[in-house]
Amino acid sequence: MRADNSQHIVDAARRRSEYTRAKAIKALRTLDAAGEPVTFETVAKRAGVSRSWLYAQPDLRTEIEQLRAAHRREPRSPVPARQRTSDASLLRRLEAANARIRRLTEENQQLREQLARALGEQRVATTRTNPPRAGADNPRWGNALASSSPHRRGGPG
What we know:
Shape: elongated
Low-confidence stretches: none
Strand content: under 5%
Number of helices: 6
Radius of gyration: 40 Å
């Protein structure tokens, strides 16, 4: 008489079934976490199982149907179509932004020119009141820079 090896076949079928369920559950969770549509088709493809097998699993079937229904309830766009920005409106906003950028660029340029003139006038006024002396350490700045430097020649330091 032959030995009864049916237990090995039953164990192998149980392991295969658990593995298949684990793949299906993982696919379901991955699709849901990624915000992708959860349907029998997408779960079956992701898990590598058949759709008919998914339909035959009551708990998985219920969960897929719930997630599918929840995904359908979510609006594609949270703003109603009549309240969405039109292309013409976006174009006007872009034109206004470009005009503002041009104005600010011109204003920036004018301010730079005014600053350059003011600094030039200040420099002229400073050089007229404090002309550089002969033999100064720095002929461009006179003794003002040399006397404030801790590394001037002949002094402590």
